[in-house]
Design goal:
436 residues, alpha/beta, Four Helix Bundle (Hemerythrin (Met), subunit A), Rossmann fold, 434 Repressor (Amino-terminal Domain), 3 domains, eight-stranded mixed sheet, 8 strands, flat, binds guanosine-5'-diphosphate, binds magnesium ion
Length: 436
């Protein structure tokens, strides 16, 4: 899709000359590109019409940069078509009950796990996954595997064929066991049928979910829209989850669903792994479709990967006793980014004690940077070479006292000892926290 739109917009982007004829040509191309991506015919037509209207309204033809303005109008219109703003899920209720609906194979079970993991990482959420796909024993098993992987309890009742009962019991179980989010994974069929609709509707009535999500495979194109309509007629769901938006993406479903059922897309699934979940951003999706590249997402992902690589490097250094002042400085900057040291210490099991007499407060950071910057590269990577005369030089260079240099040396020593000590079980956790 993006290639085609790119081509369609190309003539407008570069060349300054623009007239009514090539605006019309461009819009025709845009419409064809949308249709190719399985966008509903009516919606594609509506879309190009309203782009045209806006283009005329904003007097595209007389502006200095008509191409760019046109691209902006198309992008804004696409964003609007996909819902405009990002919409979150309702986490009210105690417990919050989230119901998954959708066809078999759409990705309900996988997404249930992803969402559980996503909420669990928000710390305040204690999640219970509920297996209501009672027809295939393998389905419950699949959910249990997912639960184990992410460390979330799975509620299931072997032998019970009544999903309404199971979900009601699960909510009781959640209340009794301090869970504040219940995610109910249900059975789907390969196509819309009455039995499935009755069943999901019965569960829906019995548990009155705070959030009912319709999960749909984005590769199914136009069918996705029909399925969405069928489920929405019965459930009046709150939001849509678009799965399998990884790899060869077709934007068609995203473009059409919102306008047909008038429900926001809330999440996207971008892979089989448990962390392949993203909040849906209409404007980013519009960028992607227009081939401008999903820059914001890319930057975020790159940042994540960078941090992970850094943490791994650091772990190796600690293991090999190569942890130096440059790393120390780096870590301090990470910690500063994360807020107060006290909170941090509180989060490390067992480390509170080790750090208690290490006097690192926010003010202490100020001089540290100056001191480390006055060290030579050799001194930074091999602190043991720092003798009395070097200390004197460093103090002078950084505008501090030998006493302060000594204090930093002591802090550094304790920190590296602690990190070494935590290389076992706690180390990983520490690294995770350092990453923020
Ligand atoms: P359910 O029948 O609705 O519960 O669907 P499942 O969760 O079992 O998913 C069906 C298949 O799609 C599985 O093989 C999943 O691994 C795969 N799947 C689910 N979500 C995604 C996704 O976002 N990307 C990709 N590539 N595969 C997915
Ligand atoms: Mg399933």
């Amino acid at each position: 899709l993006s290639e085609k739109l790119d081509k369609a917009l190309h003539s407008l982007k570069g060349h300054g000359k623009i007239n009514e004829v090539n605006v019309a040509e461009t819009l025709k191309e845009v419409r064809r590109a949308l249709l190719d991506a399985d966008v509903n015919f009516k919606i594609a037509k509506q879309f190009t019409n309203s782009v045209k209207e806006k283009a005329i309204g904003q007097d595209v033809l007389t502006t200095l940069n008509p191409g760019q303005l046109m691209v902006k109008i198309v992008k804004d219109e696409l964003t609007e078509l996909m819902g405009g703003d990002t919409v979150g899920i309702n986490l009210g209720g105690s417990p919050t009950v989230i119901l998954m609906s959708g066809l078999q194979g759409s990705g309900k079970t996988t997404f249930s796990g992803k969402l559980a993991n996503y909420l669990k990482n928000k710390k305040t959420k204690q999640v219970l996954l509920v297996g209501c796909d009672v027809y295939r024993p393998a389905a419950i098993n699949q959910l249990q595997v997912v639960g184990e992987q992410i460390g979330v309890e799975v509620y299931a009742e072997v032998g019970n064929q009544n999903p309404v009962e199971i979900s009601q019991n699960a909510i009781k179980h959640a209340k009794a066991n301090g869970k504040n989010v219940v995610i109910i994974d249900t059975a789907g069929r390969l196509a819309v049928d009455e039995e499935m609709m009755t069943e999901i509707s019965n569960i829906h009535k019995a548990v009155t979910p705070n959030e009912t999500l319709f999960v749909v495979d984005s590769m199914t194109g136009q069918d996705a829209v029909n399925t969405a309509k069928a489920f929405n007629d019965v459930l009046n769901f709150d939001g849509v989850v678009l799965t399998k938006l990884d790899g060869d993406t077709r934007g068609g479903a995203a473009l059409s669903i919102k306008s047909v059922v008038d429900k926001p897309i809330k999440f996207i699934g971008t892979g089989e792994k448990m962390d392949a979940i993203d909040v849906f951003h209409p404007n980013r999706m519009a960028d992607r479709i227009l081939g401008m590249g999903d820059v914001v997402s890319l930057v975020e992902r790159a940042q994540e990967q960078y941090d992970e690589a850094e943490a791994r490097k650091l772990q190796k250094k600690i293991a090999k006793n190569q942890f130096g002042f440059d790393d120390f400085l780096n870590q301090i900057q990470q910690i500063k980014k994360m807020g107060s040291m006290k909170d941090l210490v509180g989060m490390i099991p067992g480390a509170g004690k080790a750090l208690k007499d290490v006097d690192i407060d926010d003010d202490a950071f100020k001089g540290i940077e100056a001191i480390i910057r006055s060290m030579t590269p050799e001194e930074r990577s091999k602190p043991s070479v720092i003798n009395a005369s070097r200390k004197k030089r460093i103090a002078k260079g950084s505008g501090t006292s030998v006493q302060e240099v000594n204090q930093l040396m002591k802090q550094f020593d304790q920190m590296s000892k602690m990190m070494k000590m935590m290389q076992g079980g706690g180390g990983k956790r520490m690294m995770q926290m350092m990453r923020g």
